[in-house]
Amino acid sequence: xxxxxxxxxxxxxxxxxxxxxxxxxxxxxxxxxxxxxxxxxxxxxxxxxxxxxxxxxxxxxxxxxxxxxxxxxxxxxxxxxxxxxxxxxxxxxxxxxxx
Length: 99
Known about the structure:
InterPro entries: Fe-transptr_FeoA-like, FeoA, FeoA_core_dom, Transcriptional_repressor_C. The protein is α+β, with helices and mostly antiparallel strands. The protein has helices spanning 6-9, 37-49, 83-86, and strands spanning 12-16, 25-31, 56-62, 70-74, 77-81, 89-94. It is globular and about 30 Å long. The two termini are 25 Å apart.
C-alpha cells in the first residue's frame, strides 16, 4: 500500500472503497500491493482508470439489492467496480467531507 502523509492520518479514517455507501466521498491513499500477475494487472488497471493517491472519489450509485457493483466517480468519469475490486483501493474519509 502506498504510505499516506502522516498529517492526513490525523484528520481521516482509513478504510477501503468497498466500505463506502452511496453519497460518500473520500480521497485515494493507495492500492493493494498483492503478489501475482492477476493482482498486478488489477493494480495497474485501477491506476490507469485514475485511482491514484490524492485523487478525490465519490460513490455515485450502488446496484440493487446486493449493492454490487458500485458506480464510482473519479474526476469527470464514472466507473462500475465490483466490491472485491473496490476493496483493493485504500481511502481516507475526512469527518468534514462534502462533495
